[in-house]
Amino acid sequence: MLRSVGQRRVSGEDVDPRVAELRSAVSRLRRELALHRVEFADRGIAEDELAALDAMALGGVPEVRRLRRSLLLIAGSIGSVSAFADGLAAVRRAVERFGTPPQGPVG
To answer: At what angle do helices 43-58 and 17-35 cross, to 10 degrees?
Structure first.
């Protein structure tokens, strides 16, 4: 099995399926973004937030508020590019599997 640089082998029993789904969806959208040759203003934001999502997923079960913040930034930066609609929807579904953030006092 080929692996990306820096990716480690993990047994299937150790991986939260939500994390695996998130990593897969993020990887797909990152590939689609890399192959998209047309530049757009907020591409860097999307690339940075996808990298952040991947890093959070590598660290285990990520914080829901941070996941949703990254998703919002990604959607805002590439949402108008129809070529990314399916990939973005997959990331959104993966993020939603972590549930809603706990409600706390509004500050």
So the answer is: 150
Q: How many CA atoms lie within 13 A of 76 on its CB side?
A: 8
Angle between helices 64-78 and 85-96 (to 10 degrees): 170
CA 23 to chain centre: 7
3-class DSSP state of 5: coil
Instruction: Give whole-number Cα distances, 11 to 16, 25, 51, 58, 71, in Å.
Output: 11, 19, 23, 14, 27
* Distance of alpha carbon 2 from alpha carbon 100, whole angstroms: 35
Tokens 């047309």 sit on residue: 38
Query: pLDDT 10s digit of each residue in the chain, 107 long?
Result: 344 444 454 555 678 999 999 999 999 999 999 999 988 889 999 999 999 999 999 998 889 999 999 999 999 999 788 899 999 999 999 999 998 877 766 55
Output the pLDDT for position 31: 97
